[in-house]
Amino acid sequence: MEIWINPACSKCRAAVSLLDAEGAEYTVRRYLEEVPGEDEIREVLARLGLEPWDITRTQEAAAKELGIGRWPRDAEARDRWIAALAEHPKLIQRPIITADDGTAVVGRTEEAVREALSRQR
Known about the structure:
Elements: E1 2-5, H1 10-21, E2 27-30, H2 38-48, H3 61-66, H4 78-87, E3 96-98, E4 104-106, H5 110-118
Parallel strand pairs: 1-2
Antiparallel strand pairs: 1-3, 3-4
């Protein structure tokens, strides 16, 4: 299991604390330092079953500068969204937990983190 975190994020810290409390084995990825490329973002989106706009933090300054809120949310614009996430990783919703069974969750709630944990057992 891997968890993508921003250490400054309270939701990320809460998810890591829960994983620790449950004795989970996982790897921490500070995705702002170890930035995922476009192919990796596509893979995570497939594992999440989501589209790039579903995991984009549209209220971030970079999103506003790019005008992301006005971008189309369709198949033709998908690559543009993915490129923006790769270029501006702060736009990626966090934490993202990838489970060993090939799935992933956005672990912003205790329920979501527990769901990821259940996929490990």
